[in-house]
Amino acid sequence: MLRLFTAGESHGKGLVGIIEGMPSNIYIDINEINKDLARRQMGYGRGDRMKIERDKIEILSGIRGGYTIGSPISFLIMNKDHENWKEFMDPILENKEDKMITKPRPGHGDLTGYLKYNFKDIRNVVERSSARETAVRVAAGSLMKQFLKNFDIEAVSHVTAIGSVKIKEAITDTELIKKADESEVRCVEAGTEKKMIDFIEEAKKHGDSVGGVFEIHIKGVPKGLGSYVHWDRKLDAKLSYGLMSVNGVKAVEIGYGFENTTKFGSKAHDEIYYDKKLGYIRTSNSAGGIEGGMSNGEVIVLRCGMKPIPTLYKPLNTVDIITKEPALATVERSDTCAVPAASIVGEMVALSIIAEEFIRKFGGDSLEEISKRWKDYI
Ligand SMILES: Cc1cc2nc3c(=O)[nH]c(=O)nc-3n(C[C@H](O)[C@H](O)[C@H](O)COP(=O)(O)O)c2cc1C
């Protein structure tokens, strides 16, 4: 089965990813991965760190001459900012204490992480709980995206809300959603983009931060990924797990999950028809492409709610862990808004899970073997 391991601290030398279980003979274009890494770095409201980093992937193993060879794929993404942090992040030598953190930020893992792992310095928590780790998940997801392309599966994402500024109409046109990359806030609704930017600016002016909502649409997923037979095999559960693991994401919705709770069943479910050419079809997609824990062949629609960024330039009240006196939380260079970036992370995480389930369903060691089984099934 497809597995991903990630390692690396935010200001350490670099980030490491290992993908185990990727079939052989899949063409991988490194430029495409770097493009997705750049997409994660964009977005209105990002902090200065993203001006330093220009993420690039370096493949160490598992790919030869552009094709996967079935062995574990390992890769590096170096942290350019490490140059400025060498004395504080050395793995072996004693570290300078100037960058020690003693004032935990509400909303981050600072306080509980420090207590749980019995540290003296909250930096140990901050370095790993930082969303810098999501660069590895984007690189891995981008690789899996190239695998899924062989089966005409693709994902798009867009931002539907920043704070209280929301798009007015639901958008289902995936071609329109593709244009999200052209917007600084990844919003494709004319007129709303500017309001979102203003909302972020307002927060910035007051040393505050914002969250929002993004949506992922996955096209081309065949019927039958995931299963109803056991709770931990359900596709909606797996996607929710993956998306909930994205830093800051606190809500995941499949299709019109919340809206459907207000409707009669007659208006909530997607009626079934038969077309001689297309087979079984639906004329609506309230379920967001998943019923009974399985993909039903419709576009998979996932919506994620991200909380406001925990680091505030006008810091919140906290307690100094050394003096136990009231204090203001640590301020470390931070984004004001990361919803557009999170939408890219979400897109890649969702694709990774679809890739994993695709391989579980169709099996095989090589692309050819999987393709044959996929064609037979279709
Ligand atoms: C792409 C991305 C960038 C983020 N940037 C920041 C940031 O600059 N400052 C910050 O405090 N939190 C940032 N976050 C959110 C925190 O990483 C997250 O809130 C924190 O790890 C606590 O985890 P939790 O919110 O999932 O509970 C970012 C999240 C994502 C997905």
TrEMBL record:
The UniProt record lists the keyword Ligase: no
What does the UniProt keyword field contain? Answer: Amino-acid biosynthesis, Aromatic amino acid biosynthesis, FAD, Flavoprotein, FMN, Lyase, NADP
Q: Which domain of life is it from?
A: Bacteria
| EC numbers for this chain | 4.2.3.5
For this protein, the record's PROSITE patterns field holds: CHORISMATE_SYNTHASE_1, CHORISMATE_SYNTHASE_2
Subunit comment? Homotetramer.
Known function:
This reaction introduces a second double bond into the aromatic ring system.
User: What name goes with this protein?
Assistant: Chorismate synthase
The gene name on file is aroC
